[in-house]
Design brief:
The complex is a heterodimer of chains A (about 100) and B (about 425). Chain A is mostly helical and about 100 residues long. Chain A has a domain at about 5-70: Arc Repressor Mutant, subunit A (Orthogonal Bundle), CATH 1.10.10.1100. Helix content of chain A is about 30%, strand content about 5%. A two-stranded antiparallel ribbon of chain A has the order 1-2. Mean pLDDT of chain A is about 90; it is low at about 100-104. By secondary structure, chain B is of the alpha/beta class. Chain B has three domains: about 10-140, Ubiquitin-like (UB roll), CATH 3.10.20; about 155-265 and about 365-435, FAD/NAD(P)-binding domain (3-Layer(bba) Sandwich), CATH 3.50.50.60; about 280-360, FAD/NAD(P)-binding domain (3-Layer(bba) Sandwich), CATH 3.50.50.60. Helices cover about 25% and strands about 30% of the residues of chain B. Chain B is built from ten helices and 27 strands. Chain B has helices at about 10, 35-40, 105-110, 125-140, 170-180, 205-220, 280-290, 310-320, 370-375, 415-435, and strands at about 5, 15-20, 25-30, 45, 55, 70, 75-80, 90, 155-165, 185-190, 220-225, 230-235, 240-245, 250-260, 265, 280, 295, 300-305, 325-330, 335-340, 340-345, 350-355, 355-360, 365, 380, 385-390, 400-405. In chain B, the strands form eight sheets. In chain B, strands 9, 10, 11, 12, 13, 14 and 27 form a seven-stranded mixed β-sheet that branches. Chain B is globular. The mean pLDDT of chain B is about 95. The chains are: A mainly alpha (about 100), B alpha/beta (about 425).
Chain lengths: ~100, ~425
Amino acid sequence: MASKIVCCRCEDVTLADLEHSVARGYRDIEEVKRYTGFGTGPCQGKECLAVVAAALAKINGLDPSTIGPFTSRPPLAPTPIKILARDPAAHRFADDSGDDQGDG
Amino acid sequence: MAKRLPCSDAQRGAAVDLRFEGHAVRGFAGESVASALFASGSRVLSRSLKYHRPRTFFCMEGHCGGCLVRADGVPNIRSCVTPCAPGTEIEGQNAYPSPELDLFGAVDFLFPRGMDHHTLMTGSSILNNLASKVVRQLSGLGKLPSHVATDLPPVRSMKIDVAVIGGGPAGLAAATAAAKGGAQTILIDDQLRLGGSMLADPRFGVAIADGNVRAALNAGVTAFTNSTAIAYFPEDDGGLLAIATPDGLVRLQAKRWVWATGGYSTNLLFHDNDRPGVLAARGVGRLLVQHAVLAGERVCVIVGPGIGEYADALAGALRAAGAEVTLVPHDDVERARGRSWVTAVECASRRRVDCDVVAVAALPAPASEGPRQQGCQTVLDPQRGGFRVVVDRDGHTSAPGVLACGDVCGYIGPGGAAKDGARVGQMAAEEAREVP
């Protein structure tokens, strides 16, 4: 194993990746998320968001309180899709009401 | 080596036989698959999706994504929140031929300084297409399930006075107080067993946690365990919280919401901090306190700022259970050593601590993404663990009808969280009474 300082274990994002992202001009937490992929794995940032935000404050020389979190999106935890299958709301944008037989 | 400690049958439950990568593993009905795998000496469970670095246990609480396995043909199962069931066939994933010895791990050596996939082989379109094909084969998380899900669980709707999310010290106290205040109260917790951080803290433990659970149930609280609040939909029925339970989806409406989700275990930064055998201190604590499993014979506890009391308590309990424990401040730590499992921690002070488990004690990061979906304001406060929910003295957040208590508002620890919860739960019940 080559030596790395890992900030986001799910997506293999290292401290060096954060510095590289900032050096390329992607400094904001949402930009860094999109560039490096941190916080987009199975944990959705539970383990890494606070760590990365604090690291970015340091790299950018900003006061931590000026850094916001990235947008929180559902689902908040890994969820089997079958859990949602029988919820009518899950089919509201489908014109086949969840029935695959039609042409919808 | 991990070791099971003597404990009562009531705590552990009946013996259950599982299989991991073709080998028999002894588990117990009252524990998670991860606990059984850890106690049996299983090490690497999968590989990471980019560099194929070994991945395995870290938080032991369903929050980090480290212990994903394939269970009975279903990929990406969090083994630490999956109960042991007889005959379960557990496999590693993202590795060839096995998680322990994965050929694709070579990627990690080929890119010792990391790789920027945005600029990888973008010079020629032919090379780029080829690289994309290879990368798609190498990356990703698990393979599709072996069979189609046929048992589609039902969907239920519920309307109650007070919904408390999180069944740790703050949530149990809040739910108890709300129910005693006359509110119809539901408590939602994602773990296999109620108690939250008390089940990972030797100063509290199973007996105290169980006492708090009994108090809540006696007060009339309805509890959902192994159930997660997965989303808040403000546009549906005046706002509803979706709860994924083992029996299907619950669409929950409440007059008052109380977030008591506590904090997530985080890692500290040092070289190879993702080495297998480097666990969150609370994961080591949970193995010891909840599952009566001693994580290692020689434990190195790396202590970050603001969490010294917990680290000392854990070290004391590990020593009492027979382990040799060394505490090292985080700012002295340079790197973890070892291949498929940690063997030592190297320090800037030229000290080398030989160990078979590392316990990283860091301030837990407030679990504030649920409150954020409800519109609660948060602020990044590294001294309190991360993005804490901003509350007034009575636990009101910036979102109407939404309260919060305990570590989700910034780390205070189990004792303080319970006091906070009792106060905020009572407030929620009083306010729910005013809502038609």
